[in-house]
Known about the structure:
Layout: E1 2-7, H1 11-14, H2 24-27, H3 30-42, E2 46-52, H4 83-87, E3 94-98, H5 109-115, E4 120-126, H6 128-141, E5 145-154, H7 158-171, E6 175-176
Helix pairs in contact: 6-7
Amino acid sequence: MKALIVIDYTNDFIATNGALTCGTVGQNIEHAIASLVKEFQANQDFIVFATDKHEKQDKYHPENKLFPPHNIVGTTGRHFYGELDVLAQDVNIYKMDKRRYSSFAGTDLDSRLRERSITEIHLCGVCTDICVLHTAIEGYNLGYDIVVHKLAVASFDDVGHHYALKHLEHVIGAKVI
């Protein structure tokens, strides 16, 4: 069994005026992600939209020291970008909040996958070298087979993006397709 995890594809990370945007490279993967969602929907596979969640002026969150405020609860920055905002209306898509880079850290994702006997996770979204990478590494450590869709991931930094894809393939044995 397999699942698709769409990571952080929100306005703040993708839109031109997003608070922490990847910009054009993130916008360019919209259709690839939407196609994956539709493919997984057609096969009735488990789909997860894992979304960064921050509270305004949370002085305890470590990302606040590293990045400008983003994905703040109650703002349009947390809305899914483009076509994904429409696809997210599907009640069968599991929408979950996360507070760390990994979609597994402090969430019920592992339990949700295991109760469905899922052994293979497909990853897409942003940022390749941050949240996608950390989710993949933790998934690997939990024993999942990892598939990363290289035309459906992007990052702020082209060097980091390519490093992460190489690392995923050669260090944790992810299938990068």
